Amino acid sequence: MTDTVSPEQRSRNMARIRGKDTKPELLIRGILHAAGYRFRLHGSFGKVRLPGKPDLVFAGRRKVLFVNGCFWHFHSCRAGQHAPKTNSEFWAAKRKRTVERDAAARERLAALGWDVLVVWECELRDRSILEEQLRVFLGPPGRTPAAAAGAAGAAALPVPPLDSKPDISIQQN
Asked: Which of 40, 57, 88, 107 has the fewest CB atoms within 10 Å, i.e. the most exposed one?
């Protein structure tokens, strides 16, 4: 099958594909922020740049999150297994390098003591499963376990579900 657009148009289309602030990443950031999780963006941890530039960094928890597109990072789902017909050798080599680079970044992060979770674009379809996966990986929102242990006498707060709105009403005793 031949390409239906000119090489110049194809180049413009490919140049517009973003690596940061993608729709899947913004969706996950919104879910986590609404649930009370706080994070840093794009691999920054103070002045340190983490290997692989994780999309979300939970520094106090020593956890990072990658939000990967299935096609670009060669996931095992249907979209990830689709191979372009045009310039197939180039795409096969490019996707192979991406998979190797991703694996190397995860290994380096693990060696530095970071826990890594990869969320695939296709996993965003079922929000309840995604929310549970994020909660299990990150633990309860709010203060990190190490910081909470240092707060003597602090009462434990109930953990709201990820999809609930925060209760901002003030209760007086």
From this structure: 88
